[in-house]
Specification:
Layout: E1 17-19, E2 25-31, E3 44-46, E4 48-54, E5 63-68, E6 74-93, E7 98-103, E8 107-112, E9 117-122, E10 126-135, E11 138-157, E12 168-179, E13 194-197, E14 205-206, E15 212-213, E16 219-221, E17 231-233, E18 235-242, E19 251-256, E20 262-264, E21 268-270, E22 275-285, E23 292-297, E24 301-306, E25 312-319, E26 324-327, E27 329-332, E28 343-353, E29 368-370
Antiparallel strand pairs: 1-2, 2-13, 3-6, 4-5, 5-12, 6-11, 6-12, 7-8, 7-11, 8-9, 10-11, 14-15, 16-29, 17-20, 18-19, 19-28, 20-27, 21-26, 22-25, 22-28, 23-24, 23-27
Length: 372
């Protein structure tokens, strides 16, 4: 009957997480595109036309026919974002079976809509591409990149790497751009971005033990890339190679190329005499399981732990013994007896000022603050 109900406000849709009923980390996310399935509004065309009212992947008539009339016929939306982003949309072959996605000065990928395979990829910001069969000839195509993104376009292609033809068409539907290394469930937008997942006015019921309301102080994750980890020594990196604690295929695997492999974050600033809490998720594979490992943040101390074959969150708190602008979170895993080929995964790096760790705050290129 509403007795005991209360209002709740936190002020940020994308910085808070919780452990949901399935035991996975659940986030907030946003579709940053405008008019995400209205390709005649904020979208423009070049050497192409779009026609709505087509049969869609979801049983609706909300799909669009994208038909080119000249070389590189495409539909375009301008945008200005930066950091790790995933662009996704649904597509189906018509008279053409290839489609090209260009995220300008970011990433480029080709998709084969007849076989459900990924063609060539390029651009310096490219991280990964994915294609998922959703039935009836439809696929969800995703391109993941990192950098400054100012233009998105979907073009009808003739073959892998070829867009010079002057005719051909594909069906498209439901475009989305969200932060992070994976495409989240589609959210339709009109004149403004729309959020999903854990929202700012939603109390976080945390299921890590008995379900309870998760109330926390304001905290900032000082690490700029909590999931997209690119600095590895004596180890190779495969991005989006294993399921993360989020339940998505967006965690890296590090493979030792020689002894003493380790990963580290970008530089962060710490202040002498201040307490910092460090946390991250880690697991080992194969021969790495059971090996001793260490983690540290420059000038805060060292913690030793043991790898297991499942995700574990490592946390510890240290006091900075010096003021530094180039401190780093470093994880040596494993640091003793490592052999070439041993594998481990690290995800969800976090360094926050405070005497105890709090829930995970995701970052995708800049530090992020979760309000109280």
């Amino acid at each position: 009957d509403g007795t005991g109900d209360f209002t709740f406000s936190r002020g940020s849709n994308t910085s808070a997480t919780r452990i949901n009923e399935q035991g996975y980390i659940e986030k907030g996310y946003e579709n940053l595109l405008l008019q995400s399935n209205s390709f005649t509004t904020t979208w423009t065309t070049s050497n192409a036309s779009v026609t709505g009212g087509q049969a869609g992947y979801d049983g609706s008539n909300d799909a669009w026919l994208l038909e080119k009339s000249g070389s590189t016929g495409r539909v375009i939306q301008s945008i200005s974002v930066s950091g790790v982003q995933t662009f996704s949309f649904y597509a189906k072959a018509n008279t053409s079976s290839w489609v090209r996605v260009l995220l300008n000065s970011f990433a480029l990928s080709y998709f084969d809509l007849s076989t459900g395979s990924i063609g060539s990829n390029s651009y310096s910001g490219f991280i990964d591409a994915k294609i998922e069969n959703v039935g009836n000839g439809w696929y969800r195509c995703s391109v993941i990149g990192n950098g400054s993104l100012n233009l998105i376009n979907i073009a009808v292609a003739d073959a892998d790497g070829v867009t010079s033809g002057t005719s051909g068409s594909v069906y498209i539907q439901d475009a989305m751009l969200n932060q992070g290394l994976v495409a989240y469930p589609y959210i339709e937008t009109t004149t403004a971005p729309v959020a999903g997942g854990i929202l700012e006015d939603m109390p976080r019921l945390d299921y890590s033990s008995c379900p309870a309301l998760l109330l926390e102080p304001q905290r900032t994750n000082l690490i700029e890339h909590s999931e997209y980890i690119t600095s590895a020594n004596n180890a190779s990196i495969s991005h989006n190679a294993t399921e993360s604690p989020e339940g998505e295929l967006n965690a890296p695997i590090f493979t030792a190329t020689t002894t003493d492999p380790f990963v580290r974050s970008s530089n962060i600033s710490i202040t002498t005499g201040t307490s910092y809490s460090i946390s991250f998720y880690i697991k080992g594979f194969g021969t790495a399981i059971g090996k001793g490992c260490t983690t540290s943040v420059t000038n805060t101390g060292i913690e030793t732990f043991t790898l297991t074959g499942s995700w574990q969150r490592i946390t510890y708190t240290g006091t900075a013994t010096a003021t530094r602008t180039n401190a780093q979170l470093r994880i040596d895993a494993p640091n003793v007896g490592a052999v070439v080929g041993e594998q481990f995964s690290v995800w969800g790096m976090q360094v926050e000022q405070g005497s105890y760790p709090t829930s995970y705050i995701p970052t995708y290129g800049v530090s992020q603050t979760r309000l109280a």
